[in-house]
Design brief:
heterodimer; A: alpha/beta; 7-stranded mixed sheet; 6-stranded mixed sheet; 12 helices; B: 318 residues; alpha/beta; 10 strands; 37% helix
Chain lengths: 395, 318
């Protein structure tokens, strides 16, 4: 393996580099803030001959994903990206590659949903995609945005997987921010992501019917088969990350922990906010508090076992959501509670909602959440029911 | 310039029609689940004969997809994909682009595969219009066939923007305050022509040789080609199944559905009628128009006459 280059790259450009290095055949996208820099950069690469791919400049996100589905079924390696309202417009089509087992790879530059109109980051768009049947991974910084996009291709295209994969990056926080990162040598990425042959490709030499009509006597079985295969994809996801570590030296886990060695309290986060949370944990640790951080990297398939393992010594878990499930609370917290209910009914789980529509979450707010969380956990242990607490909103 | 009563080559050829001139291969296999007398099933069968086997078919949700792909069976002897109702234009763009890229990159040989999108009138003139417009505008090398049975038929005869004025449907019912469909049929062929694509034609399975010839022309066209195919629906039109071919002919002979081509902007009548049959010959025999008064029919006649005259003018027929 050749040593990679240390470069300063915007998150969007890092993703475009990943798509170029995996040698995508078809890119189909519609511009939407804050995803635009990714497609602009890819269009530029194609225009300059740095990437040999068909660029379908579609008229909507619905068509962007539809063209990816067609191209993937015809055996191409494809890419698209979107954000916020665009992902919502794409929503109907997102189920199709999952049920047809097409390895489409997409990046979501996470953005709040209307109204009022907001182009800034939160995870409302990602949460609306909870049940689409895609492998979904959250990145925290630009290095991860690159690495995880590369990994997404190997995961999706594994012949035992053949499911679409989506990498979530926080809009603006990553898409528009330049960070230093290591860009691997192209040849190494090419070795890691070799060309693949889609086994059921649309080809007159061997006609297949794809996307047939399923009456009640067969639909349920098809869905069951999809779910079984999707759950089974997790072992391959772990395998890809293992090979990635061996090849490039950076490791990824479905659930990652930070300073959890003796922690009785932990905060759980997703996305770029995790790096700010690490600073808060460092400060609290220097004040002598035994607190740690859990970062949920793999959102689907949900990492039940890894999450249970991560919380096994905890008395108190604080879950930070960047989305609101209206009338319910934080969607991630709901999932975490559901995942832990069978094994850890003694664990106090506290829900926080913060950073909605691009509102920054300050170091003090993280520290408040952790300190106040422990008090709240006491109340939970005493049998009190707690509503999710919203942090950082003006009263 | 022909006199009244003279017939063109095509009409004569239709009379001399012999199956020996056509392939006996059925790329759209028998045994599908279409209603009896379905004009669309017939049209698809003809289209598939003309397509040959070196094509990939992308289908929208609609009658055809429903009656041809009920799991675990398929009527398609061609590679076929269906995803959603409104996205055929985009999916076929993706398929075409994938082949283009993979051939250029040396991943697969160029075997001259062609790409065909098919949809009903709902999937074309209503919900699928945007994706189709995008595909035409981008200039993909595709053939798009709209099978127009003038309503949402597989969900039970609801109006579309392709339903003709005055027709009864379940969502445009006839009542004290309603004549049925209150708007005029959207002129999809002209919308397509406005995209300035190289080939646009209208066709009907009542004229099978004309239909197949147009399919072949569409396939051979470099760039986007569009066929608008009238597909008689006895179930939704409230007519007898054995009358399908006849109604297709009546639609053409009355000028309600003229057969014409637009090749690189040049109009050409495939069949021309200096004197059209009265529209009432067509309307009066269908249950969906049963409620129309003489005045209503006169109104439709005036509109058909006007449109047909405009079309003849564009085609340079005096």
């Amino acid at each position: 393996m050749t040593k990679g280059r240390l470069v300063g790259l915007e998150g969007s450009f890092a993703i475009a580099e990943a798509v170029r290095m995996v040698n995508a055949d078809v890119i189909s996208a519609y511009p939407i803030t804050p995803q635009t820099h990714i497609v602009e950069r890819l269009a530029e690469m194609i225009a300059d001959g740095e990437l040999d791919a068909e660029f379908i400049c579609v008229e909507s996100e619905h068509s962007a994903m539809s063209a990816c589905v067609g191209a993937s079924a015809a055996g191409a390696r494809v890419f698209t990206c979107s954000a916020g309202q665009g992902l919502e417009l794409m929503h109907e089509v997102l189920y199709i590659p999952a049920s047809m087992r097409l390895p489409v790879v997409a990046v979501a530059a996470n953005r709040a949903l209307s109204g009022p109109l907001s182009v800034w980051c939160d995870h409302s768009d990602a949460m609306a995609l909870r049940d689409i049947g895609w492998i979904q991974i959250f990145a925290e910084n630009n290095q991860q945005a690159f690495d995880l996009t590369v990994c997404a291709y190997r995961m999706a295209e594994d012949q035992d997987v053949l499911f679409p994969a989506m990498v979530h990056i926080d809009g603006f926080y990553l898409s528009h921010v330049t960070e230093d990162m290591e860009l691997p040598a192209e040849a190494d990425v090419a070795d890691f992501i070799p060309d693949y042959e889609y086994p059921f490709v649309l080809d007159p030499a061997k006609p297949v019917s794809m996307g047939c009509y399923g009456p009640p006597f067969i639909y349920f079985e098809a869905k069951m088969a999809q779910n079984v295969a999707f759950e089974a994809s997790k072992s391959k996801i772990l395998e890809v990350w293992k090979v990635f570590k061996e090849t490039f030296g950076r490791s990824y886990e479905p659930v990652e922990t930070y300073r959890m060695e003796d922690a009785r309290t932990a905060l759980l986060t997703m996305g770029s906010i995790s790096e700010s949370a690490m600073l808060a944990i460092d400060e609290l640790r220097s004040e002598g508090k035994a607190v740690g951080l859990i970062r949920l990297r793999l959102w689907r398939p949900f990492p039940f076992a890894e999450l249970r393992e991560a919380v096994k010594n905890l008395d108190c878990l604080l879950v930070l959501d960047r989305a609101i499930s209206y009338g319910m609370g934080g969607p991630v917290c709901g999932e975490v509670k559901a995942a832990l209910y069978d094994k850890r009914q003694d664990l106090a789980i506290v829900s926080y909602i913060a950073g909605i529509g691009g509102r920054d979450v300050t170091l003090d707010e993280f520290k408040y959440m952790i300190n106040r969380g422990e008090e709240k956990a006491q109340l939970v242990t005493l049998g009190e029911e707690l509503e999710p607490e919203i942090i950082g909103v003006r009263e | 310039m022909r006199g009244e009563g003279e017939r063109n080559d095509l009409e004569q050829a239709a009379e001399l029609f012999t199956p020996l001139l056509l392939t006996t291969d059925e790329n759209f296999a028998p045994g599908h689940r279409a209603c009896i007398g379905c004009g669309e099933a017939l049209a698809v069968r003809h289209v598939c004969k003309a397509l040959g086997t070196n094509v990939i078919v992308v289908n929208a949700t609609g009658c055809i997809e429903i009656f041809s792909s009920l799991l675990p069976q398929t009527t398609w002897r061609l590679p076929w994909i269906h995803t959603l109702f409104e996205n055929v234009g985009a999916v076929v763009s993706g398929v075409e682009s994938a082949y283009k890229a993979r051939i250029r990159k040396g991943k697969i040989p160029d075997r001259g595969v062609k790409f065909v999108g098919i949809a009903g009138d709902g999937g074309t003139t209503d919900i699928g219009l945007q994706a189709l417009s995008g595909a035409l505008e981008r200039g993909h090398n595709i053939l798009y066939c709209c099978f127009d049975n003038e309503a949402y038929m597989n969900t039970g005869i609801q109006r579309s923007s392709s339903t003709p004025y005055g027709a009864w449907t379940t969502t445009a019912p006839v009542g004290k305050h309603s004549i049925g469909q209150m708007t005029w049929k959207k002129n999809m062929p002209e919308i397509v022509v406005a995209h300035r694509i190289p080939y646009m034609a209208t066709a009907c399975p009542s004229y099978p040789l004309d239909l197949m010839e147009k399919v072949q022309k569409g396939l051979e066209t470099e760039g986007p080609a569009y066929l608008h195919i009238l597909s008689v629906c006895p179930t939704g039109w409230r007519c007898a199944p054995e009358e399908t071919i006849e109604f297709g002919r009546l639609a053409v002979e009355t000028g309600i559905f003229p057969l014409y081509e637009v090749i690189n902007g040049d109009y050409r009548m495939s069949l021309d009628f200096p004197v059209l049959r009265p529209v009432k010959d067509y309307l009066r025999r269908q249950g969906r128009f049963r409620h129309l008064t003489e005045k209503d029919i006169d109104r439709i006649q005036a509109r058909v006459d006007e449109d047909y005259a405009k079309l003849r003018e564009k085609a340079g027929v005096k």
